[in-house]
From TrEMBL:
Belongs to the CbiM family. One of its GO terms (biological process) is cobalamin biosynthetic process. It is found in: Cell inner membrane; Cell membrane. Pathway: Cofactor biosynthesis; adenosylcobalamin biosynthesis. It comes from the Bacteria. One of its GO terms (molecular function) is cobalt ion transmembrane transporter activity. The keyword Cell membrane applies. InterPro entries: CbiM (IPR018024), CbiM/NikMN (IPR002751). It holds the Pfam family CbiM. Signal peptide: none annotated. It comes from Ignavigranum ruoffiae. Forms an energy-coupling factor (ECF) transporter complex composed of an ATP-binding protein (A component, CbiO), a transmembrane protein (T component, CbiQ) and 2 possible substrate-capture proteins (S components, CbiM and CbiN) of unknown stoichimetry. This is Cobalt transport protein CbiM. It is a multi-pass membrane protein.
């Protein structure tokens, strides 16, 4: 257990060290959304966060043995979503890291973890922003995990290859995160010619050039991490109801 805790701290430290610089990144940056849009995404995220906080409280009260897994998945999300990979726009793309926590704890708790990760990144790394916290939480912490969870649950009913299902769920959850980000940017900054649809097409097309391979890599990496956890943390995974069988 001590080794698992130290691993979580190590991953978190690596993420901070690699990203102690200001950069325009694929979290929507501070001040980029008009106030009315910023408030709208905050309001839309609040019900999901409320449910997630209640579920997280129950886990912390009744399943304390799995808290180390929760800490590790949070550190994993922090590190992956802080890794900024240059994009053709002069900004950057990155993995989300939310697939692991979603598979173990569900989309509601993932929303809370996503909020915490985004808040610390905004404060420590200038990655994202406080005024855009609602929009970034909705795309990365709510929509992405919901997509991942639905595909994971349905996929396990139709396929015996559990690890392929995990790969597919995580990769598509990552991609849908950036579809939502493109919608958010298009709504706030419609094109003078073609309006919201033209703006969405532009954002989505540009992001796809880097985000599609990133989503594939994140899916593969999550499967590798999952296989490792199946070996070293089987008792905790059993408590979470995670079956090693497909």
């Amino acid at each position: 257990m001590k080794k698992k805790f130290l691993m979580a701290l190590y991953l978190l430290g690596v993420g901070v060290c690699l990203n102690m610089r200001t950069a325009h990144a694929m979290h929507i940056m501070e001040g980029y959304l008009p106030l009315n849009y910023a408030l709208f995404w905050i309001a839309l995220s609040l019900p999901f966060l409320f449910v997630g906080i209640k579920k997280l409280s129950r886990v912390m009260d009744k399943q304390r043995r799995v808290l180390i897994i929760l800490a590790m998945t949070g550190a994993y999300a922090f590190v992956l979503s802080a890794l900024k990979i240059p994009s053709v726009t002069g900004s950057s793309s990155h993995p989300t890291g939310m697939g692991l926590v979603t598979i173990f704890f569900g989309p509601s708790i993932a929303a809370v973890i996503g909020l915490i990760v985004l808040l610390f990144q905004a404060l420590l790394l200038a990655h994202g922003g406080l005024t855009t916290l609602g929009a970034n939480t909705f795309s990365m912490g709510i929509v992405g995990p919901i997509v991942t969870y639905v595909i994971y649950k349905y996929g396990n009913k139709v396929s015996k290859n559990k690890h392929f299902v995990i790969f597919l769920a995580v990769a598509l959850g990552d991609l849908l995160t950036y579809v939502v980000t493109s919608i958010q940017l298009a709504l706030a900054h419609p094109s003078e010619v073609g309006g919201v649809l033209a703006s969405f097409t532009k954002f989505a097309t540009v992001f796809a050039l880097t985000q599609v391979p990133i989503a594939i890599i994140e899916g593969i990496l999550t499967v590798i991490v999952m296989i490792s956890l199946e070996s070293v943390a089987k008792p905790e995974l059993d408590l979470l109801g995670y079956s090693l069988e497909g």
